[in-house]
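Progress against Task 2.4 (sequence-to-structure conversion) is shown through the following example record, which the project officer requested during the mid-term review.
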Amino acid sequence: MRFLVVSTLLVFGFSFIKTEVVNSFSTCSDFFLNGQPPVIPGILKNSVSQDNNRYKLICQKYQNAYKFATLYDTQKKIPVFSAYRYTGSYKGRPHIPWMIEPQLETYGDAMREPCVNQAFPGDYWAQKSTLRRNLTRGHFFPNCHAADRITAESTFTLTNTAPQYDSFNKGSWNKTEITVRTTMNSHCRNKSDNISAYVLTGAVPSKANLLNKRVNIPSSMWTVFCCYNSKTSTWESQAHWADNKDEQNEEKTINATSVTELQMFMKKTYGSAPTLFHGVDCTKI
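Structure tokens generated for the chain above:
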């Protein structure tokens, strides 16, 4: 039956990423600081989903190697977060088709519509002309943070994206990705003087703002990293978050803040504050 599912999806011209939907993030723990994923109340604890029918753990595998990890909300059809280790950046942008995750679908689902549990390219094609100019696929693990071409290609899966307003995606959020990259390049050096940082990027879902009547358009985006600075022999971190909205001011920037402040911001969504990093003090900016 699995062959029939894939065949049905191929009719729609989809590309597939060879990822793995797993029961525990221990399968790809290298993308988390000290091998420990965040604790998010009611969603993720001890590397395991607290609602496996809704929240899926994905070890994003591409070209026979794990590249990053994603906690995916099949109800909202966007990630809760993607996690990756930053080790330097590849100069260039791949030009490949957007991919989907076939393991998120089942035989019965595929008979009703192409993708029941995730976004698919048609969600963006179906936009009305006014919306189509305003919404785009926003990376969680941005390809500009990938260390090489293959890793950059692996980020082009819709399980690593959510709808973002185009002016936000190309404006203040893009500036933030570049600023964070520059900061990690200069501050995040391990004892061997190699660039190394652990990054989490996620979204706060909106209450009822939908793309194509089914894919949640996040109300805000957040990103945070923690790394060891061998020059100062300290652990350092930096967090950013901002509303996902149409930006009229092209000069807008997003101020850096602390992990603690981000966790308190996230508390408004989850009822109690999550723990994003474990084992070291990541409170210093």
